[in-house]
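Propose amino acids for all 265 sites.
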C-alpha cells in the first residue's frame, strides 16, 4: 500500500464513523463547487503551515449555518488531513462525497442498480465520439455539460446515479468514463468485490452470464462484479480482466498471436 493509499484509508475510516446520508453527499458536493471557484479559500483550508485544528476551525466558521453539522464534521476531517496541494484536498473532499452517496445507495439496497447504470452510461459516452468530445471540451461550460448528461438520463436512472453522473462531468480522472470507472472501483472496494471487465462479441443471455459469474467467483476466490462490453471486433470467444490478470480467448486475439508469430519467423 502506498502512502497515498494509506492516507485515503485512514480518512475513509474516519468519515465512515460519522452518521451520514445522501443529503450529506449533496452538501459536500456543494462545498466542492464552492472551493473549485475560490482558489484562496481552498489554499487556506489546505495550508500546511496551519495546524489541522486551525484548518478545521476555519471550515466550521465558514460553513456554519450553510450546511449541516454532519457535513461540517466531514469537511473538518478532510481538511485536517495532509494534502500535496489545494486541488488534491478538493478532490479528496469530493471522493468522500462519492463514497457517502454510494454508502447511502447500499443502505437502500440500490447499489447494484447504481453500478450497472453508471457503467452503462460510461460505455454510452465512450462509444459516442460527439458526446465524448463535448464532455472533454474546455470551451463548453461545466453547467452545460451537466445539463447535457442530465437530459441523457432524465427519468431513467436512480437518483444516486444521476447525482454521481453530474459529479463525473468535472472529470477529475481526466475523462468522464475514467472518472465513472473510479466510482465503480470505490463501490467494489466498499463491497469487498473484484471487478471483472469482460469483452464478448455478442451479448450474453442470463444463463451464460450466471455461469460466467460463478466461474469467475471461483477463480477470484470471492465476490465479483461483472462489467460486460460487447465488441463485434473480437469475432468470438471472451476476454476477461480482473485486476492485473487478463484471460484472453478471443478469435481476434488468436489471429493476432498467429500474425505476430509469422512476422517473427
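Proposal:
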Amino acid at each position: 500500500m502506498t502512502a497515498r493509499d494509506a492516507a485515503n484509508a485512514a480518512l475513509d475510516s474516519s468519515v465512515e464513523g460519522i452518521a451520514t446520508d445522501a443529503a450529506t453527499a449533496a452538501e459536500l458536493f456543494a462545498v466542492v463547487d464552492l472551493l473549485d471557484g475560490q482558489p484562496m479559500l481552498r489554499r487556506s483550508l489546505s495550508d500546511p503551515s496551519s495546524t489541522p485544528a486551525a484548518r478545521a476551525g476555519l471550515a466550521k466558521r465558514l460553513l456554519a449555518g450553510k450546511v449541516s453539522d454532519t457535513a461540517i464534521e466531514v469537511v473538518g476531517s478532510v481538511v485536517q488531513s495532509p494534502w500535496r496541494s489545494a486541488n488534491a484536498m478538493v478532490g479528496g473532499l469530493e471522493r468522500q462525497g462519492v463514497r457517502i452517496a454510494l454508502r447511502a445507495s447500499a443502505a437502500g439496497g440500490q447499489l447494484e442498480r447504481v453500478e450497472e447504470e453508471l457503467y452503462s452510461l460510461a460505455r454510452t459516452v465512450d462509444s459516442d465520439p460527439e458526446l465524448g468530445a463535448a464532455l472533454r471540451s474546455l470551451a463548453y461550460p461545466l453547467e452545460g455539460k451537466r445539463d447535457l448528461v442530465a437530459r441523457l438520463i432524465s427519468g431513467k436512472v436512480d437518483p444516486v446515479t444521476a447525482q454521481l453522473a453530474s459529479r463525473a462531468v468535472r472529470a477529475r480522472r481526466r475523462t468522464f468514463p475514467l472518472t465513472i470507472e473510479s466510482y465503480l472501483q470505490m463501490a467494489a472496494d466498499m463491497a469487498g468485490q473484484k471487478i471483472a471487465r469482460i469483452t464478448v462479441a455478442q451479448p450474453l443471455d442470463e444463463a451464460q452470464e450466471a455461469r460466467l459469474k460463478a466461474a469467475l467467483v471461483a477463480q477470484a476466490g470471492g465476490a465479483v462484479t461483472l462489467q460486460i462490453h460487447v465488441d463485434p471486433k473480437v469475432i468470438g470467444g471472451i476476454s476477461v480482466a480482473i485486476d492485473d490478470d487478463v484471460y484472453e480467448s478471443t478469435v481476434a486475439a488468436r489471429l493476432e498471436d498467429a500474425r505476430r508469430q509469422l512476422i517473427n519467423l
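The first helix runs from residue 3 to 16. The beta strands are 194-200, 224-230, 238-242, 245-248.
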